[in-house]
Structures are given as C-alpha cells and as structure tokens.
Design a protein that fits this description.
It is a single chain. With about 400 residues, this protein is mainly alpha-helical. The protein has two domains: about 30-215 and about 385-390, Cytochrome c-like domain (Cytochrome Bc1 Complex, Chain D, domain 2); about 220-380, Cytochrome Bc1 Complex, Chain D, domain 2, CATH 1.10.760. The protein is about 30% helix and about 5% strand. The protein contains twelve helices and eight strands. The strands form four sheets. The chain has a two-stranded antiparallel ribbon with strand order 1-2. A two-stranded antiparallel sheet has the order 3-4. A two-stranded antiparallel ribbon has the order 5-6. The chain is globular. Mean pLDDT is about 90; it is low at about 1-25.
Length: about 400
C-alpha cells in the first residue's frame, strides 16, 4: 500500500511539473532552436536564463504604478529590450530608440534635441527612468499619447525621428512590420514570446512599454535615508545638514502674502513633484516655460515632466543633459525660474499653483536656500541604472 501511495505521489508530482513546464514555455528554450538569436546576441540574451524584469524589488514606500493591465514579464521585456536598441526600426537602419534615450544619461539625451533620420526631435528627449512609478498615465511633454503603449510607436512613425510616417510616399508602420518579419531573430523571438511569429503594432507597443517600465532606480542616497525613517519630513540620518534643509524646503508648502511673495514656509516643490516618486502631479498645467512656435504663438500645452530622480549622472555632479522640454536650462536656472515666475502675457495655461493669490509666484529664496535645494536634488541620483545589463544594448558589436 505504501509503495502504491508513493508511486501515485511521484506520478502526480511529475504531471504537475510537466504542466508547469509547458505553461512556462516563454521562460525557457532549447538553444539549438534559436540560432539567429545566438548569432545576433551571443550570450547577451539567454532564453534559458532570462534576466529579471518581472520581479524586481522596490521600496515599500513606492506606491504609484501606471502599469495597468500590461504586466511585465521577462520574455516580453526581453523582446522590448531588443526592439529598443534595434536600428532596423528606422527607415535607413541608423536610429534606434536608444539613440535618443541613452542609458548613460538615465535614458535621456545630453544633446538639446536628438538626431533622427530626417532631422531632429521637436523637443528634448525625456528621461525614461522610473516612467512606471507615477500617477500620470499620459506621455510625451504635451501628453498627446494616452498611454505609454501608445507612445512607444509614435517616434517610429515620426518622419524626422525614425521615418515610418506613411505620409508623402514614405513607408508606414506596416512596412516596418513587414521588414521585421524578414529578420530571422524576430521570427525566433516572437515565436518564443507569443508562440507564433506574428508581428503587430500592438505587440511592438506591449513589449517596448514593458521594457521601458522595467527601467527603475531606487538606490540613491535619498532611498538609503528614506528606509531609516518613517516619513519624508523627518531628518535623514545619512544626509548632511544642507541636504536635510534642502529636503525640508522642497517638501514644505510656502506661505504667501497678498502679493504672492513668500513670507514663511518652504519652496513647495513637492506640491508638483511629490515624494517619494517625485513624479509630476496629474492634471498639472504649464510651468511657465514656453517657446515661440512659428505661426501659432506660444507653446502652452507642455504639462508633462519626468521624475526628478536621476537629473544628475551617477557622479552626482553633471546633469544628464540640460533641463525642461526646451533642453536649454541648467538646474540653477530651473531653481531661479521657480523662485520668481515670469511668463509671457499670452500664457493662459499657467498652473494655478504658480500663481498664489492671483499673482506670479515669488519665493524670495536666499542663495543659501537655493544651494540647499540643489544639494537635496543631487541625493535623488542612483547608480545601477547607468550600468545594469538588463537595460543595456544586447546586440553584439
């Protein structure tokens, strides 16, 4: 009887193992079935040992998440990584997503505008790090994409950026899909990820957005300190006096007189960039930075911004490129801009938070206070995001 029970138990365990193995076929593969992947990526992509995108840790105090129903899997994020770095996604095979969003600069660009196949981007390339951890679902500076998924293929279809516009005789997104279908490594990757070789725009969007959402950074000096306290408004043990003072200025709301001049309190930066994610508050309006657009007046619809994390490179001193959608302001100039708001008379879209008591904001910050805010902002820079293999170029040299 014992032998029979043991046999039944072993048989049941084997069947469960077999079922799990079949259901998880996206997470394992036989190398000999994927020669094009080995030829193209070598050991940079191992379908039998996929890198961990799906189960990365994050601090308990990080609560915002705009993933929606597109839950990250190792297989789809791996496909997204390949797509992100593949120059075949441009009409002349010279530009990838990674050309404008470089890992070395927290997935932004150190240039004011980025070079595409037929010109340059309209605006500075936004940092993509921690794009997942914010309440705002819309993307692009002007929020023209309702989701990150919708955003991912718009640069591909931009005539200046990657060229598959489908306009004026230019190839369109279906031409790109037909092009990718001819590449052996995509035949193998899509078969591995989706169990068939079919390539669609929605699958490109799904995989690219999973890879982008996987790019996270929570190893900054700020994060080390935040784990040692119960709330952001407490002094962090690992901070200098200036860093703690800058944090308090950043978080504390200002008190204004009837003329909009600060008389007490902090700088109120956290009113728009709330800790601990430091993302932009949803439904924010223009911040006072505008450009003159030919024939249409001031550009007033810029209401999106990336997280304030990783403004600086991992040395903690140099910027990951100049700031704002215009890509032409230093961090000191940004602080001065918010210190005393000055706008075009035609700006009808200024965020009300920057117009206290109906007047343009004047924080009246001292130079010491400005320096302290800057010291705090530098604590938001992590290190691993700049070098982690998960987010690096998988293609062989």
């Amino acid at each position: 009887m014992k032998k029979n029970r043991s046999f039944v138990f072993l048989l049941g365990s084997f069947l469960i193992f077999l079922a799990v193995s079949c259901n998880n076929n996206q997470e394992s593969a036989e190398p000999e079935k994927y020669p094009a992947i080995i030829r193209m990526f070598g050991g940079n992509i191992n379908l039998n040992q996929l890198l961990n995108y799906a189960n990365q840790g994050k601090p308990t105090y990080i609560t915002k998440d705009n993933t929606g129903n597109n839950i990250i899997t190792n297989a789809k994020a791996t496909l997204g990584r390949v797509l992100f770095y593949d120059k075949q996604l441009s009409v002349n095979n010279t530009i990838a997503c990674a050309n404008c969003h470089k890992q070395a600069f927290a997935f932004s660009d150190d240039a004011q505008v980025s070079t595409g196949v037929n010109g340059t981007t309209d605006r500075h390339s936004m940092r993509l790090v921690n794009a997942r951890f914010g309440e705002e679902m819309k993307f692009f500076w002007d929020e023209r994409a309702a989701t990150l998924e919708a955003q991912t293929t718009q640069p591909i279809q931009n005539h200046a950026e990657m060229g598959f516009s489908g306009q004026n005789g230019n190839p369109g997104i279906q031409d790109l899909i037909n092009k990718l279908k001819q590449l052996d490594y995509y035949k193998e990757l899509f078969k591995f990820v989706y169990n068939d070789e079919n390539i669609t725009e929605s699958r490109l969007q799904e995989s690219l957005s999973q890879f982008i959402r996987s790019i996270q950074s929570f190893d900054s000096k700020y994060d080390v300190g935040r784990t040692q306290v119960n709330a952001d408004n407490q002094n962090f043990p690992n901070f200098t006096n200036d860093e703690n003072a800058g944090k308090n200025l950043f978080l504390a709301p200002p008190q204004f007189n009837a003329n909009g001049v600060r008389t007490a309190g902090g700088a109120g930066c956290g009113g728009c960039h709330r800790a601990p994610e430091f993302d932009i508050v949803g439904n924010s309006l223009n911040n006072g930075i505008v450009r003159k657009l030919t024939g249409t007046g001031d550009e007033l619809n810029i209401t999106r911004t990336p997280t304030l994390r990783n403004i600086f490179r991992n040395n903690g001193n140099n910027l990951n490129g100049l700031l704002m959608h215009t890509g032409d302001l230093t961090i000191e100039q940004v602080i001065n801009h918010y210190n005393q708001i000055s706008i075009s008379p035609t700006n009808t879209n200024l965020d009300p938070k920057l117009r206290p008591n109906g007047n343009l904001q004047n924080l009246a910050l001292t130079q010491t206070e400005k320096d302290q805010i800057l010291a705090f902002l530098k604590t938001l820079t992590g290190t691993a995001v700049y070098t982690d293999t998960r987010w690096s170029n998988p293609f062989l040299p």
